[in-house]
Every structure is written in structure tokens, then in C-alpha cells.
Amino acid sequence: MLSIDVLPTGQYAQVFNGSLKLHFHEYGTPDKKKPSLLFLHGSGPGASGYSNFRQNYPFLHDAGYHVLVVDYIGFGYSDKPRDFEYSGSNQVSILHELLVQRGVEQVVPIGNSLGGYYGLQFALTYPAMVPKLICMAPGGVEDVAAWVPESPGLIAMSQAVAKGEFNSQSFRELLKLLVYDEAIITEEVIAERLPIAQAQPREVYTRAVHDPIWKSLGELKMPVLAFWGYHDQFIPVRHALVMQEKIADCRVVVSNRAGHWFMIEEPQLFNRMCLDFLRDSD
Fold first, then answer.
1. What topology does CATH give the domain 11-279?
2. What pLDDT does residue 1 have?
3. Closest alpha carbon to 109 in 212, 209, 226
């Protein structure tokens, strides 16, 4: 558990056979008439559910939805073990465990980057629980060998993690790659993410295991809404077309005013289109 007080503290759940503490924020209670919303953050150093979605989940909660905003194991205020296998299977199983504990029967995952990957894997693993799915530049759409070597953002992040240290300047330079307009990377953004990044063990990345879900995307039958920034330097915007080719019901929104952080760079557009998608009965 992180002792640095840089973000609001929510609640903790005992997960993984009671051996780990998972941090999350919860707003409202499960509603039989509509699905809960599960916000899933990306993998960038220092990421947390709150820092990624602080401009989004209040809007959807105010619209009447029960909301859960999670920090994965290894991130935010959740436990950060060095001997944990940071695989999609383990993280998705823990997310499912949390939902069961909170009494959630139907859920719409809303995930960016790694969170989009976990959302896709969750929907493939527990399809009966997921009536719809929302992603922002999700990972897992294509074999990593086909695109990661050409990703400036992921190459830079891998190099930064390999060095094992972050200072304010190097951290700022890395975060600039996530956005189209560098002015978004304010002192506040640095202040709430850097201490968490400095507390994360390298094993969060070196022990990461990415299951080949790209082979199974055609199995997704629920409606999917995907967002992409045209200037994304982490996950190529062409993956939006890959999703549309593989998934039977997939709508895509692309903005040339955004990079990899669509929900942060285009919050009003993102919030409005998510709500329309959630309310759409077609």
C-alpha cells in the first residue's frame, strides 16, 4: 500500500485468495435496471484509476450509473508485490472477484490502453456479464510483434523502465508522448503520478504477460465503442480498423485533437458519446 498522500483514498478489497489489497473508488450501488461501469486505467508509470478518469466518471455517475474506478495490482494505491505474475488472466480474475464482492451482475468495462486490453479480455472471459464495452486505444488488438517495435511511446516507456529511475524532467518527457497538446502535462499531472511511478517495482513491467486475445476478438458479440487519437504515439490508430474488421458490432471515434489519452484530451466529447452509447438500445 502506498503511503504517499498524492491522490484521494477510496476503499480496499482483499483479493487473490485474500493475499492482496486492491484499491478502488465506488460511487453509487449496483442497479438491476442498468449495468455498472468499471473504469480501467492504462499501464503508464504512475497511472491510477483516479488520475486517468477524474474528468469522466463523475459525469457518468451523475447520469445515474453505479461506478467503480480501480487501481490494478501494481498500480495506484493497490499492493505492488515483486513476485506476482502481472498477467491479463490474473488481473482480470481479480477484477471479476471485486465485482462479485460488490454485488455487480452486469458491467460495462471502460478501459484505455492496457485497461482496454483488460476490458476486451474480461468480455471474452465473462461475456454473459458484459452487455457493452468501451475502449480507448486498447492493447491486444494485434500480435505485439507486429507493431510494438514501431511504437515510439512504448519504446520510450520500456527504456525509461529499464533505467529504473524517474525524476521530474525525465518523467515529463515521457508523459508528453501520451498527448497531442503538451500543455496538458501540467505540474499537477506530474505531482500526482511521479510519486506512484517511483514506488512501482520494475516487475510490474518485467513480469507482465500479455495473453494473445487478438486471436479471439471475433468472438465478441456485444456492441463495442472505441476511441482513438489520430496522433497516438503508443498504439497505432490503424488498430481501429482492425477492431472493426474483427468485431461484429464496433463503432469507432477518431479525433485529430488527441494522442493516446483521449478521455483526458477530449473529455466532453468522450463523456457525451459514452452516455449516448450506454443509453442506446439499438
1. Rossmann fold (3.40.50)
2. 45
3. 226
